[in-house]
């Protein structure tokens, strides 16, 4: 299995603003394996998706240990670099300083931290509480992650547009975080059109590549983003759990409506496919080699 630092180096080399890397969200190792199988360049270890999988709000409810072990497990079953969504970093810069080496030891390739207060509120929740920490305070977090991450990429996420602070404040914060040592800057927006994000990208001076999460403005294609020549990574932020919820709901309702399971058999994965995803062939090989 490839090391986390080797994966970090591979991901760093893929942050090409002329052809941005693509990351798919995951909330468990199975989703991570499917994302890699599909051909995505990286796996987004989404805090939103993980919270949803536990049926709790995306509001710093789950403990760090739960998130950390899930990131480790995602990296153990497939070879795509894992980009861990650390939200606000579990507290202040000191909390983050303790957390970051643990993520490096778990084989994570990159961490993303955002400049909101702890505990966070989901960026896309209507009427959410979006409060930012002072810029200098967040620069300290970026520096801690950079100094103690052992080579992991550090992505600084500014929520200035989410908080309604405007383009100039978002640019000011993004530049400051790059100066503090961030390898990339993630800028987020909840506007239903990409105009706000496009204005930010065009004004960005290009010190480090940008990262986009086009959940709210899906009409912006990957080709449109590449044409900007500012963005190194595009994250499909929550599509795994949303797809899973939609598929499970449809299957469950049909089974109840039809009074049996026969009708869904041709539309769901076979048991054999699940065995393959579980690594059944390796299990059988181990049995042949070592069971006496």
UniProtKB/TrEMBL annotation:
GO molecular function, one term: phosphonopyruvate hydrolase activity
SUPFAM superfamilies: Phosphoenolpyruvate/pyruvate domain (SSF51621)
Annotated Pfam families: PEP_mutase
Membrane-crossing residue ranges in chain numbering: none
Keyword Nucleotide-binding appears in the UniProt entry: no
UniProt-listed Enzyme Commission number(s): 3.11.1.3
UniProt keyword annotations, A-Z: Hydrolase
Class of enzymatic activity (EC top level): hydrolase
NCBIfam families assigned: Pphn_pyruv_hyd
Family: Belongs to the isocitrate lyase/PEP mutase superfamily. PEP mutase family.
Record's protein name: Phosphonopyruvate hydrolase
Source species of the chain: Roseomonas acroporae
The organism's taxonomic lineage, starting at the top: Bacteria, Pseudomonadati, Pseudomonadota, Alphaproteobacteria, Acetobacterales
């Amino acid at each position: 299995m490839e090391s986390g630092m080797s994966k970090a180096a591979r991901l760093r080399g893929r942050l090409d603003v002329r052809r941005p890397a693509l990351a798919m969200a995951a909330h468990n190792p199975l989703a991570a394996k499917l994302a890699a199988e599909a051909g995505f360049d990286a796996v987004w270890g989404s805090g939103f998706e993980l919270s949803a999988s536990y049926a709790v709000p995306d509001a710093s409810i789950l403990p760090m240990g739960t998130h950390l072990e899930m990131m480790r497990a995602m990296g153990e079953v497939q070879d795509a670099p894992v980009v861990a969504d650390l939200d606000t970093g579990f507290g202040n810069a000191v909390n983050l300083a303790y957390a970051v080496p643990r993520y490096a030891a778990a084989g994570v390739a990159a961490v993303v931290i955002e400049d909101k207060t702890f505990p966070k509120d989901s960026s896309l929740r209507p009427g959410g509480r979006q409060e930012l920490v002072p810029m200098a305070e967040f620069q300290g977090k970026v520096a801690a992650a950079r100094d103690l991450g052992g080579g992991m990429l550090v992505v600084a996420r500014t929520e200035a547009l989410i908080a309604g602070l405007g383009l100039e404040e978002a640019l000011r914060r993004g530049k400051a975080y790059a100066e503090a040592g961030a390898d990339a800057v993630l800028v987020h927006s909840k506007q239903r059109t990409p105009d706000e994000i496009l204005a930010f990208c065009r004004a960005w001076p290009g010190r480090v590549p940008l990262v986009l999460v086009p959940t709210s403005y899906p009409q912006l294609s990957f080709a449109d983003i590449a044409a900007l020549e500012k963005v190194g990574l595009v994250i499909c932020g929550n599509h795994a759990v949303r797809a899973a919820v939609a598929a499970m709901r449809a299957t469950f309702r049909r089974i109840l409506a039809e009074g049996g399971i026969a009708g869904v058999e041709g539309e769901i994965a076979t048991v054999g496919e699940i065995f393959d995803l579980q690594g059944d062939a390796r299990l059988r090989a181990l049995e042949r080699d070592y069971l006496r």
